[in-house]
Amino acid sequence: MPRSTAEPPPQDVRFCRSADGTRLAYAVHGAGPPLLLASCWLSHLEFDWQSPVWRHFLHDLGRFATVVRYDERGYGLSDWDVSDYGLDARIADLEAVADAAGLERFALLGMSQGGPVAISYATRHPARLTRLVLYGTYAVAVDRDADAVELEQTFQQMIKVGFGRKDSTFRRVFTSLMIPGASEEQAGWLDALQARATCTENAVRSRAERMHVDVSEIVPDVAAPTLVVHARGDRMVGFARGRELAARIPGARLVMLDSDNHITLADEPAWPEFVDELAAFLIADRVAGRTPDATLRSLTERELEVLRLIGRGSDNQQVARQLTLSVRTVERHLTSVYAKLGVSGRSARAAAVARLLTHG
Description:
The protein is an alpha/beta fold. It is about 45% helix and about 15% strand. The longest helix is centred in the middle third of the chain and has 17 residues, at about 145-160.
């Protein structure tokens, strides 16, 4: 993918302090209902805008949401002189950012290692969340079998000896696991981001601490409507982890992306599928009352009712119960909706709801 020379959209970079006094940098951009990102360690609020690995996340999510994201303690523009990388400290950081940004109720997106933080926040502050998205994440950081523990120890040793080197050979190992389908330009950017995001000492200490994370006991306590998104071939966090989350969170829906990348890239088919699914999931958070476009006007009132319920996370059987219809009748309504809106294929459902999100 050629590097974009366009200027990034405006973002407001602000600072707040966590419960222990750690200064955190957070940024706000986009328009729409609030979406707070509990992201992984691999971020830099300014550098991300230049990156062919992260830039499409910022642009596309900002089209339908007011995105609030922050650099974790010890990373990016946040304080690097940090001693506590424990889960409770990271939850306090999320709480501080949500409060500082003035978010009363909001959707929360937990990505990768930010997932356990998001799950914990969801169970501690259920009244604050409208919905929860878990992307490429897990409840238990490391399986307790001997092979998994040995592999993690090897990773930590590689970070210790190779993270800060000018030669990116050691960092490329992690890049290859995260985005095996990357171009050389994309891989090079992720190599560079690892070195720019933090120092070796912080990378070692935070990795060691977060590998003890286990929030499996509280997963069934998540009450917010939840969307779990996971790449089928994810090499960093195996798909079974995402499937387990979806199975244990009441009412959660699982979306499997046809990708091997832990970070979905802009030039793979899985990316627009993810964007459509997320936009559709957030539809209930948008302010109602917009005038539909011409294609939406062609839908019958019953078809609109079905589509609205789908947008709120209901499956076909739930829609049938709420509207006192048979499942076959719901399916026929959806087939008609797809034909009128000109959408088809695996993402037709999400694309139809996204159309309602944008124009309805």
